[in-house]
Design goal:
about 45% helix; alpha+beta; 15 strands; about 500 residues; elongated; four-stranded parallel sheet
Length: about 500
């Protein structure tokens, strides 16, 4: 439609055919409005007006998003964020384009019973319904990330949209157009930021792993410092024949070794450091590994596509698994493996600082506080010889597999068996905080005087001073002299749900 079209005056539309069609549409719209106003809706009078008012300025949807996110599952948190992002785009579109392009007056309230009417009537134009757009955008956004939560939110969204006709502030076509615009906004957000379900890691290379009906043959060690009790209970409900061993952090290595001696499949529930320990045990004993996320970040489990006990239980019962790469570092002080990341420079200091505060204020707040404290401190860069060339470094990061959408924290890996180390370097120099931030927001293969990125199968570092901190999968150790990094392609067998199986 052209700007400033008044839907109450069909003569403004060009062409007799268009004028007649619009006349019929407006007549049908008005008839449906009067029919809704004249119909008695049992139980609606005490509910729909209040529900309509609660959705003003998105208050209802922010509260719903908070309730969904409070379930503390990754899928629910992503669904809440996607719902709010979709709502924001829909509201922006309605208020900048919709309301000003079509100046349709609000319906006359004469047919609407007084008990249904809102205390304060809207003063904006009628087409399209902003409340319906926000409701549809939020519900569609949530559903695109989590169909289950989408189904739970949909009745609420439908009721808000219906309340706009019920209270007499919108014609039915206003609501339909608003809902369509809101759903479109949710799909537009998904096009810009794909949902996790859209980006499925390749199911390769497939591994021949045993199917475990009801979890029989699985021995899972749970680090109870990670708050794993609820997840362990969920696993017992999903796999009643699985054996779950809960233990303190310092008991985890011994418990894993003992479990490996009697398990067909070794399982672990904890953070990335605990999973790293389990991977070493599984490699030594030649066992497949089942990972149940139980920490703060859970990079490895989430990149596998395992988010909860249902995902892991389905993979175990159906016998679905893949082989993944393992990163390995070696130095004069010993060697270790990493499933996620290896780093030198400010990040190991950040990890140590975060661990100091985690028990007092929680994982996420501790991470933010640690980042602020480390970036504000006056520290000297690490001096190292990288591939034969000596240079000062604020940060050297090597990922086990290529990370996509790097930000201030590592993004997601699509392929866990690509044979590459994803190496990111932030060179030493003035203003380290600015250099780190610019590197964080740069593209994956950006090269500049401040930072660079490259994918390599192996890496050699030399000339490290004694006491240099090294972090791997959230654990910190000290190294000196030479450090070598390499990939062990397809070395570890893990369970993961295979959607194409």
């Amino acid at each position: 439609m052209s700007p400033d079209v008044d839907l109450t005056t069909p003569d403004h539309t060009p062409g007799n055919g268009g004028r007649a069609a619009l006349t019929r549409l407006l007549a049908a719209d008005a008839w449906m409005f009067r029919a809704a106003a004249g119909r008695r809706w049992p139980g609606a009078e005490p509910v729909l007006p209040r529900l309509s008012r609660s959705a003003n300025h998105g208050v209802l949807w922010f509260a719903t998003a908070a309730a969904v996110a409070a379930t503390r599952t990754p899928r629910a948190r992503r669904a809440a964020v996607r719902g709010l992002a979709s709502l924001g785009l829909a509201s922006l579109t309605v208020n900048t384009l919709g309301k000003w392009s079509v100046r349709r007056p609000r319906p006359a309230l004469d047919p609407v019973p007084l008990v249904r009417r809102l205390g304060r009537q809207p003063i904006t134009t009628s087409f399209p319904s902003g409340h319906a757009a926000s409701a549809a955008a939020f519900a569609t956004g949530v559903a695109l990330e989590s169909p289950g939560w989408g189904a739970a939110v949909a009745p609420l969204a439908f009721s808000v949209a219906a309340s706009r006709v019920y209270t007499g502030v919108h014609f039915p076509s206003d609501v339909v157009a608003g809902a369509a615009l809101g759903a479109g906004a949710a799909f537009a957000v998904r096009a810009l930021v794909p949902a996790r379900a859209q980006v499925v890691p390749p199911a390769r290379p497939r591994a021949d792993v045993p199917a475990l009906p009801e979890g029989e043959g699985l021995v899972l060690v749970a680090n109870n410092a990670s708050g794993t009790a609820e997840r362990a209970r969920a696993l017992r409900d999903t796999l009643p024949k699985a054996e779950v061993v809960e233990c303190a952090p310092d008991e985890v290595p011994a418990a894993l070794e003992e479990a490996a001696g009697r398990a067909r499949v070794l399982g672990v529930c904890g953070g990335d450091g605990t999973v790293n320990t389990a991977a070493e045990v599984a490699l030594r004993h030649g066992l497949p590994l089942a990972v149940l996320p139980g920490g703060t970040l859970n990079h490895f489990a989430y990149d596998l596509g395992v988010e909860d006990a249902r995902d892991l239980g389905r993979a175990l019962e159906q016998g679905h698994g893949v082989r993944v790469d393992v990163g390995r570092f070696s130095s004069a002080r010993g060697q270790g493996v990493f499933l996620n990341t290896f780093s030198l420079g400010v990040y190991p200091e950040l990890v140590r600082e975060r661990e100091r505060w985690t028990e007092r204020i929680g994982g996420w707040p501790a991470g933010v506080l640690a980042a602020v404290r480390v970036l504000r401190a006056d520290r000297h860069p690490v001096e190292a010889e990288v591939q034969g060339r000596r240079r000062p470094l604020w940060l050297l990061f090597a990922g086990n597999g290529t990370y996509h959408r790097m930000g201030l924290a590592p993004g997601r890996r699509i392929d866990l068996a690509d044979g590459m180390l994803d190496v990111r370097v932030v060179h030493g120099g003035r203003r380290p905080a600015l250099r780190l931030l610019s590197a964080a927001f740069a593209g994956p293969l950006t090269r500049s005087p401040a930072h660079a990125a490259v994918q390599l199968p192996r890496l050699r570092l030399d000339g490290l001073a004694p006491g240099t901190l090294l972090a791997y999968d959230g654990e910190v150790t000290e190294v000196e002299g030479e450090v070598r990094l390499e990939k062990l392609p397809g070395a570890l067998t893990v369970y993961r749900p295979l959607p194409d199986a």
